[in-house]
Amino acid sequence: MSYLADSNILSLLAQPQNPHHAIARRAVISLRRQDAEICLVPQNLIEFWAVATRPITSNGLGLTIDETEYEVRKFKRLFTVYDDIPNIFAEWENLVLKHNVSGKNVHDTRLVAAMLTHNITHLLTFNTKDFKRFSEITVIDPQNV
Prior knowledge:
By secondary structure, this protein is of the alpha/beta class. It has helices at residues 7-13, 21-33, 42-53, 65-78, 87-98, 105-117; strands at 2-5, 37-40, 80-81, 122-124, 138-140. Helix 1 (7-13) crosses helix 2 (21-33), helix 1 packs across helix 3 (42-53) and helix 5 (87-98) crosses helix 6. The chain is globular.
């Protein structure tokens, strides 16, 4: 089985002091023990970079560029990273029309489009409500792994 780790999973893995860090870490370890493939797409790493380098006062992690680069390199070693390919846009376009997606939710829809394009079946995320509309994937809260 394959799982896309949502960007919030990455953010929490990079924050050992956060109370949800242990939950995210346990979920990843548990899935690995079940021989699940845990994946990323470039958008995950881009979103992580944006949050990681944003100041703490602006709901970011306040990491330096060097610290963020270190975390990204670590994620790329730990997880399978699928490339962006042209079919993702067409899939995204179909999904935003099919599910009447607007506003900031278009970014989440692109993650789902990448999942479908790469045959990734499950999404590991703390933001399960943001993905409820997508019957095409299975959304898993790390607390339920």
